[in-house]
Amino acid sequence: MNLEQAARQLESLGNPTRLQIYRTLVRAGHAGLPVGGLQERIGIAASTLSHHLKRLVETGLVTQERQATTLICRAHYPAMDALIGYLADECCADAACAALAEPSAAS
């Protein structure tokens, strides 16, 4: 994952409605939810849901699969894992440097 991709994904999740949609899909598990079921759970108009889903699909956080006449939406877990990893993979990487630069409280 690169900085630009992480920024696009985080920006798409920065909208409260999209974040709610995404969390609902994450909770649904690998089976996902049909668009109609997702619309029921979120309680928004179909056109609004479609707009927000498009953005989540464009950033790779959500996938869609047509099963006959039903469109199934799923959280794309590898993308979620990559984003979380990107945010956390260098956690405290500079802590050793910071600890050396700070004077000791005991001194």
TrEMBL record:
<dbReference type="InterPro" id="IPR011991">
    <property type="entry name" value="ArsR-like_HTH"/>
</dbReference>
<keyword id="KW-0238">DNA-binding</keyword>
<protein>
    <submittedName>
        <fullName>DNA-binding transcriptional ArsR family regulator</fullName>
    </submittedName>
</protein>
<dbReference type="Pfam" id="PF12840">
    <property type="entry name" value="HTH_20"/>
</dbReference>
<dbReference type="InterPro" id="IPR051011">
    <property type="entry name" value="Metal_resp_trans_reg"/>
</dbReference>
<keyword id="KW-0805">Transcription regulation</keyword>
<dbReference type="InterPro" id="IPR001845">
    <property type="entry name" value="HTH_ArsR_DNA-bd_dom"/>
</dbReference>
<dbReference type="InterPro" id="IPR036388">
    <property type="entry name" value="WH-like_DNA-bd_sf"/>
</dbReference>
<dbReference type="InterPro" id="IPR036390">
    <property type="entry name" value="WH_DNA-bd_sf"/>
</dbReference>
<feature type="domain" description="HTH arsR-type">
    <location>
        <begin position="1"/>
        <end position="95"/>
    </location>
</feature>
<keyword id="KW-0804">Transcription</keyword>
<dbReference type="GO" id="GO:0003677">
    <property type="term" value="F:DNA binding"/>
</dbReference>
